[in-house]
Amino acid sequence: MSRPYVLVAGGLDPTGGAGLAADLEALLAVGARALPVATALTIQGPAGALGFDKVPARLVEAQVQGLFTGRGARPSAVKTGMLGSSATARALATLCSRAPLADLPLVMDPVLAASSGLRLFERPHGRSVAHLLKPLLARATVVTPNRLELAALCGLAPTALASDDDAVDAARSLGVRAVLVTGGHRRGAPVDLLVEGRVVRRFEGRRRPGTERGTGCRLASAMAGLLAQGLTLAQAVRRAKRFVESYLDAARDESGSPGSC
Ligand code: PLP
To answer: What is the pLDDT of residue 192?
Structure first.
């Protein structure tokens, strides 16, 4: 069977640690291919994330429309990562509600900031993140925040979601179809929580030493690649988590020391 395509909208990180380059690697690793649409160009390196310029929303829209002008590859899933602005989030939500994207699984990774601290999503004064991302949140098959992103989406302090019960309540309050609360910032083992209405599934994991970048991008892209191949959401989470764990183990073996970028 040929590899299905996933349309991935996200930022370019020249280190390859996160963003579109990481998406591409993850998709190839799970048997899919990427249709990469750039939403931002970032400046990153050993000193962390230093800045970015967003691609104007109309140009993001034109990239997607260009893909579907004439005969060519059609995606079987969509994944969004760094969007830069709410205008781009809105444009993508509209595109994803129309053919040929209307009925496809959409994995939304709500990238708000780099781990080194730089904000990667413009937030005009006084506007809540959930409000700015509302149309895309409403269209998403699954949203994949870490605990910091989930707190920001719910208008809570970064430290507010200490327990799993707090995280599950916050995920439910978003009112979206499904939320995968990733476990990287969880105290103790990195357990991911998949919250679909009343149903909560736990995906256990073992913490690796160090802090490798781009695990959120890779997990969400791998999920999209697996959903594109017809796996259920729970199956896709399980397999994507295994992929990220083997990525972390390989990165550690290659560098000889944990934590390199
Ligand atoms: N840069 C881009 C383009 C990203 O998409 C992301 C995360 O998705 C990041 C940076 C942040 O990655 P990290 O948290 O590993 O710094």
So the answer is: 96
The answer on pLDDT for 209 being more than 90 is: no
Going by alpha carbons, the residue nearest to atom 15 of ligand 1 is 213
CA dihedral of residues 195, 198, 203, 209 (deg, nearest 10)? 50
H or E stretch covering 200 = strand 199-203
Closest C-alpha residue for ligand 1 atom 10: 114
pLDDT at residue 3 greater than cutoff 50: yes
Best probe residue, ligand 1, of 109, 213, 244, 248 (max atoms within 8 Å of C-beta): 213
Query: What pLDDT digit, counting tens, does each position of 220-238 carry?
Result: 999 999 999 999 999 999 9
Given a cut of 90, whether residue 254 has pLDDT beyond it is no
* 217 close to ligand 1 (CB < 6 Angstrom): yes
C-alpha torsion 66→236→18→108, nearest 10: 60
